[in-house]
Design goal:
Elements lengths: L10 H18 L1 E3 L2 H9 L3 E3 L4 E3 L2 H10 L4 E3 L8 E3 L6 E4 L5 E3 L6 E3 L2 H13 L5 E3 L12 H12 L3 E4 L6 H15 L2 H6 L3 E5 L6 E2 L1 H13 L3 E5 L2 E2 L7 H22 L5 E5 L2 E2 L14 H14 L4 E5 L14 H6 L7 E5 L1 E2 L4 E2 L1 H17 L7 H4 L1 H7 L9 H10 L5 H4 L9 H15 L7 H19 L1
Parallel strand pairs: 1-12, 6-18, 7-20, 9-10, 10-11, 11-13, 13-15, 14-16, 15-17, 17-18
Antiparallel strand pairs: 1-3, 2-3, 4-5, 7-8, 19-20
Length: about 475
């Protein structure tokens, strides 16, 4: 069957990126700022320089990691009807944005620091929107204990959303990771059930180029052992944290993912792992990551090809409009249209504004509605002898119409894509009416939508677990 896909690298270029990545891992190595993880890698065959905290990873370790990594997985959800399997067969799974430090107030339109209540609203909206498949911990709540931010964010999201949750940042250290897994196991019905259907996954970013901080990499090991999927998101910024060249950026992305994969599989063979990149050039005038760069979708496509070479599930593309205020600005058609076509299993960014520094409920609504149209195009198309329909052509005859033929009547609803008229009203570029319409829709959803609740006993146990953990942090 035919599916819309963008291919960027030729076979020889794909092979070169792979070979250069292996050379980088074995000759240059990666900095791992954890004695515990360095020893684990050394015991498995890596060459470790303790003075520099660098592990050189041989090719056979990488090959074993690729072999052991699962090639498919279920992203479980508290509401099982929202379980998602990756890799996908057609369109990507849309996720929300994450880590936004400010929120656009739904009532006043003012930008203010994000709170835990805001996170609850974003999670609830994600639960309600058909176009959103996975909910990140969308905003950074500034009114909770920052040392327990990750587990607090996971708990708020689980309570307010029945879909799969992705936590960003993943965890402050190994203990934090263990506590998150323990919390999710309460909701899942035990550790074994959590392994079968992990209710959450985590976004963990190496420090480009080629460095892993102690806390996050210790947490990565614990997540691997608990069966929690890890999304190894390379943030390779061309010209700043990666070579400015396309080749250099793709090699850095691939090297960091292979290093992260090796760490996870060394910790626990068969640990669920998702190859990921949110890499882009920097704006050479400002030094800021340029999500709107014309090169960005090509980097997405190149990273996706490398991941599929290894058979790994992926999150290599992003979605949304580069705008500082909610709405649908003019001029981002290229990025919005091309990026999803790389074939990524997941695509992040719904609700993002201001280069992901902020988040907007109205923007999430707009992004979700537009995505529903785009993903409809990314379905399977039957291109076969039967669908070529020469017999129908013969029956209709030269120069005549197919409109009244029974073949058209029987097939037009499944063959043609029909757009929702009401949702299209939010897609009118530069319309002053877009944001108010979205705001009204969000307000209605937050008032009327009911998220299936967590039972009272589990809620109590979860609250007690977090309270005890925060007490530990203070001692």
């Amino acid at each position: 069957m035919a599916v819309v896909r963008l291919k960027f690298l030729g076979r020889d270029e794909e092979e070169l990126v792979h070979e250069q990545s292996l050379k980088s891992l074995s000759n240059l190595g990666v900095k791992v700022k954890s004695d515990r993880v360095l020893k684990m890698l050394e015991d498995a065959g890596a060459i470790v320089d303790r003075d520099r905290s660098v592990a050189k990873i041989p090719e056979d370790m990488v090959n074993d990691a690729v072999k052991n990594a699962p090639k498919s997985m279920v992203l479980g959800a508290r509401n099982p009807k929202h379980d998602k399997k990756v890799p996908v067969e057609t369109h990507s799974l849309l996720t929300t944005t994450g880590l936004a430090v400010y929120t656009v107030d739904l009532e006043t339109g003012e930008k203010r620091p994000s709170t835990d209540a805001d996170l609850a609203d974003f999670a609830k909206l994600a639960d309600a929107l058909e176009g959103v498949d996975v909910s990140w911990t969308t905003v950074t709540a500034g009114d909770v204990n920052q040392d327990a931010l990750a587990i607090r964010s996971l708990w708020t999201s689980l309570k307010n959303c029945g879909k799969h949750i992705q936590v960003v940042p993943a965890a402050r250290d190994g203990r934090d990771a263990r506590k998150q897994a323990e919390l999710a196991a309460l909701v899942a019905g035990g550790e074994d059930e959590l392994r079968k259907r992990p209710l959450f996954s985590v976004i963990s970013c190496p420090v480009a180029p080629l460095s892993f901080d102690r806390g996050p990499v210790d947490a990565q090991v614990e997540f691997a052992r608990a069966g929690i999927p890890l999304v190894a998101m390379s943030m390779s910024l061309s010209g700043m944290s990666a070579p400015v060249t396309m080749g250099g950026t793709l090699v850095n992305i691939n090297t960091e993912n292979l290093a992260s994969l090796t760490i996870s599989q060394t910790a626990a063979a068969g640990a669920p792992f998702i190859y990921s990149s949110e890499s882009a050039p920097i704006d050479m005038k400002t030094g800021v990551m340029d999500y709107g760069s014309l090169m960005f979708p090509l980097i997405c496509a190149g990273a996706e090809q490398m991941a599929k070479r290894y058979g790994l599930p992926t999150m290599t593309a992003s979605w949304g409009f580069e705008t500082k205020n909610p709405g649908m600005p003019f001029g981002d058609v290229y990025h919005t249209a091309v990026s999803p076509l790389c074939g990524s299993d997941m695509i992040s960014g719904a609700g993002s504004i201001d280069s992901a520094k902020g988040a907007s409920l109205e923007q999430m609504m707009v992004d979700s509605y537009i995505w529903e149209d785009v993903r409809a195009v990314m379905r399977r198309y039957d291109v076969t002898e039967e669908t070529a329909a020469l017999n129908v052509v013969g029956e209709v005859g030269h120069g005549n119409t197919f409109l009244r033929h029974i073949h058209t009547v029987r097939n037009f609803k499944k063959e043609l894509i029909f757009r929702d008229a009401e949702k299209r009203k939010l897609q009118i570029s530069m319309s002053d009416d877009t944001t108010p319409r979205a705001r009204e829709a969000v307000q209605r959803i937050l008032k009327e939508h009911k998220v299936p609740p967590i039972d009272a006993d589990t809620l109590r146990k979860g609250d007690e677990l977090i309270a005890a953990y925060e007490k530990e942090l203070r001692t």
